[in-house]
Amino acid sequence: MSRAPSLRRRLLARLAIPLLALIAADAGLSYVFALRFANSAYDHWLLDSARSLGAQVKAEGGQATLRLPKEALEVFEWDERDRIVYKVSSEAGELIIGQRSLAVPEPPRELQHPAFFEGEFERETIRGVVIRAKPSGIHEPVVIAVAETLHKRNSLAAEILAIVLVPQVLLLLAAALLIWSGITAGLRSLVHVSLDLARKDHRDLSPVPMRDVPQEVQPIIARTNELFGRLAEAMHAQRKFIADAAHQLRTPLSALKLQIESLERERLPEEIRSRIVSLKHAGGRAIHLAQQLLTLARAESEFDPQRSFADVDLVGVARDVGEQWIPKALEAGVELVLDAPDSPVNLRGDPTLLSELVSNLIDNALRHGRDTRTITLRISGTPRPSLAVEDAGPGIPPQAKDRVFDRFYRVDARSGEGTGLGLAIVKEIVSAHGGTVSIETRPQFAGTRVHAVFPGTAPSLQSLREQ
Amino acid sequence: MRLLLVEDDPDLADGLAAALARAGFSVDRVADGKSAADALDSQPYDLMLLDLGLPLMDGFEVLRSARARKLTVPVLILTARDALEDRVRGLDLGADDYLTKPFELAELEARARALIRRSAGHAAPELRVGELTIDIRARAARHRGEPVNLSPRDFAVLEILAAKPGQVVAKDRLVNSISTWDKDFSENSAEVYVHRLRKKLGPLGIEIVTMRGFGYLIRVAPQ
To answer: pTM of this prediction?
Structure first.
């Protein structure tokens, strides 16, 4: 199950990936714009500085010179965070004042028109402005460049970016959280639906209730219910067929049995009598087989607990069926013992099928227990309703133990006794009631013990969550 | 004893009619529900053997209409259906007993006789276990004609057990039926009384078997 795609994760991924991309693009754009704002603010200051520096250039003996008091220069160069460098040179490139190593591009031809540039100075990225100025008394213009490192600009851009980005990221997180909890709330109704489904008995084909189911999920449940409906119809048809087949098969078998029994009462020559005995034996087996097949088919088609399941007292069933078998058991020299609590042991079940279950177990023990002196029916209500039928016979060979519940499997196939369906019916009936059946034999148990355990209550919420 | 057999399967009806005639009944056969209703109106019967799945009018309907016309003929249902609700429905509609196909001929005869006896009002005046005869009205038992010395309490226990010879009688049923008039008879003392009766009957070849968890059973002791 862990490999299956998660709706929550998929929806989150679908939403989060484009949102993240959007935020990244937005961040890039914001940064570019922030940097432009920062540049335009600080560029203005650079240009002012360059112009005011130009205003200080004086002609001195035909030469352009710039003399500034030390304090003025300090004020000019002082900045809290950035380094400010400047360079004033003649058009020919002779340095008048400033940093010789500052690389300056060609300024625009027109006077006072700025050209901004970016470059590197002493391993730091800088941005600067260069202008051409022509102070009075000088024929040749001078080139003035002022540049500064980018710390202020970068941090201003970063600040702008942060102001734009942080709310966006918070928004994204909030959206993710809302989506997660929204989906969880939406899926909760699915959990209810799955609990409804899990609480159903395994043959209960009634529709799942539609309450509190979100619109999007309703089609799934509607289709599931339709499927249940079609299955129930098919099961009903099968059930009806079995009932009809039972009737059709039983009537001619009754006639056969009756004719043989009447014949047996006639005064007949010995050789014919012995053939009638064989006929009776074969007829008896055919009847037994037909009965067993019908019981098996009925147990298989038992799908609608509301229809046929009722509160059944297992002790009462064992007592009634046991009483019916007592004459036959005594005839075989076997004592039938009922070991049951005084109080009823109730379970939800089909009384007819549960009677067949007990009957088949006793029949099985009588047929295969051989020299057993007793057969015990043991009923217990704790921890869950259970029924065991025990004999002290020879047991089952180990290689047969796994196969005794198979249809038509007989431990001793040559005996001509039994149909090989008894324990298959037992298993089918127990599982129709949601129970389990097991067999113990020698050497663990002194004989053979078939043990059926029925569910006491519906599956708990806890056990469903653990799945 | 006149008996109406309502069965649409010709093989089964033939076999049943022959076997029942041999057993001393005079049998009228019909093969559908409508004829059954007509036959019931034409003359009184001591017993009706009624199949449920019938043409024209099913067995339930035959039964319902017969009871609606206040016909009290005992009805034994022969059903091929083993569904509990069918049996319950049949008994609710006024059937007296039912047998599921395929049945033993001997069982059919026994139940048919029991139903006829009961409706004639002489329900089991005398019970019999082997050579022991129990006269309910005289409250006395005889073995090969010789009176058997039994206390009233012994007789009460014997009467209940002998009503179902060879079949088990639940201990609580025994206790419940006797303790209504004998307050000393309890679950604990039942074993004592059964033991006393067992000692008296043993020499006569009759044994009372204790079926652990089930109850008691009276039968002719195997040789």
So the answer is: 0.61
